[in-house]
Amino acid sequence: MYSEDDLLPISALQHLLFCERQCALIHIEQVWDENRLTAEGRLIHERVHEADDESCGDVRIVRGLRLRSLRLGLTGVADVVEFHRVDTGWGASSRGDAESAEFQRTNTVAGVPLTEAHGLWRPFPVE
């Protein structure tokens, strides 16, 4: 397990995959120089976070979802994540939170409970 102080920003992984030198400049040396392309990217990113979360039937779209894993040592924000309702085949939406959590632990259905939503939901990162 990692401590809060040791968490690596998820964005650092993207920078590392794109260019190791860029990653070191941004995350170690704290050097950043915005250009036209990075400014355009920043504006597009801001627009993504301005939109509201959406719900349509068995799909929920969440924007600006904060992420943290002490086990993996990562922290960050996912721009857009879709959650699809998991069909358990026997009324998961009618169970309480504790019962849903137990169902999830003892079955192979991959899903998580969501606040203010019944049943289990499978996350699909969009970006």
3D architecture notes:
By secondary structure, this protein is of the alpha+beta class. It has one domain. It has helices at residues 10-18, 20-27, 36-50, 97-106; strands at 8-9, 54-56, 59-69, 74-85, 112-114, 117-125. Strands 1, 2, 3, 4, 5 and 6 form a 6-stranded mixed beta sheet that branches. Strand 3 (59-69) and strand 4 form a beta hairpin. Helix 1 (10-18) runs antiparallel to helix 2. It is flat. The model is unreliable at 90-95 (pLDDT under 50).
- What is the radius of gyration? 18 Å
Content of β-strand: 25-35%
Secondary-structure element string? EHHHEEEHEE
List unreliable stretches of 5+ residues: 90-95
Estimate the mean pLDDT confidence: 83
Principal-axis shape = flat
Distance between the termini: 26 Å
Helix and strand content put the structural class at alpha+beta
The count of domains is 1
Strand count, sense and barrel status of the largest sheet are:
6 strands, mixed
Number of helices: 4
The count of strands amounts to 6
Percent of residues in helices comes to 25-40%
Compact description:
The chain is α+β, with helices and mostly antiparallel strands and 127 residues long. It has four helices and six strands.
